Amino acid sequence: MHFRLSRPAPDDLAPLVVSGRADCLTYEPVGITTLATAPFGYRLDRWSCLLGRGDWVFDTAADTIRHWQVQKGSGIVVLADGPPHLGQVVAMSAPLPIGYLDLACRVVDVVASSEHYGFAYGTLSVHPEQGEESFTVTRQSNDEVTFEIVAASRPRNPLARAVPPIARRLQRAATARYLEAMKAAIAR
Predict the structure, then answer these.
(1) Which residues contact 36 (CB under 8 A, 6 or more apart)?
(2) pTM score, two decimals?
(3) Per the structure, how many domains does the chain have?
């Protein structure tokens, strides 16, 4: 596990991006966040919230995702070479009750249309979990705009496997912060 006591600068995460380019995903199949049920051993969670109505809400939510503001707004340090794109390695350092945990993921899907915008990334070896997480904003036929996070994961690191309730609580807290970051972006 890559743990640090103090908050890193984004550039401090550059070695994770470099090593992540040669790294393999720690799970299969790719696309598990699109499945109706999780593969054996994985937990599939879906969270969503209504953001409002109209073009401005959709465009603002899409820009929030595009510029990694869901993660940054939740307190995560992010190093990514631009908006999410297929194959991109993103390095992050997530706040813990004490210190920060470094993570690396690869973008495995991007959706961009007039009705949907979002991406999914999958875990690389520098991550305590294995699986995939997606962040998508959708404009419904009635012009309502929703934000959905889907996570299909299971503990990978021995410490995370030894104390699954704590790992689960940390994941739920991170997801709550993601939702709040998106709501805050729309409220501006």
Answers:
(1) none
(2) 0.94
(3) 1
Q: 80-125: per-residue pLDDT in tens?
A: 999 999 999 999 999 988 999 999 999 999 999 999 999 999 999 9
> Among residues 34, 188, 147, 13, which one has the least CA distance to residue 89?
13
Nearest to 70 by CA among 88, 46, 94: 94
Which amino acid would we find at residue 65? I
Q: Return the ∠ at Cα 66 (arms to 85 and 56), rounded to 5°.
A: 140
Mean pLDDT of the chain: 93
Please give the residue range of the domain that contains residue 113.
3-187
Q: What is the CATH number of the domain that holds 166?
A: 3.30.530.20
* Distance, CA of 29 to CA of 31 (rounded, Å): 6
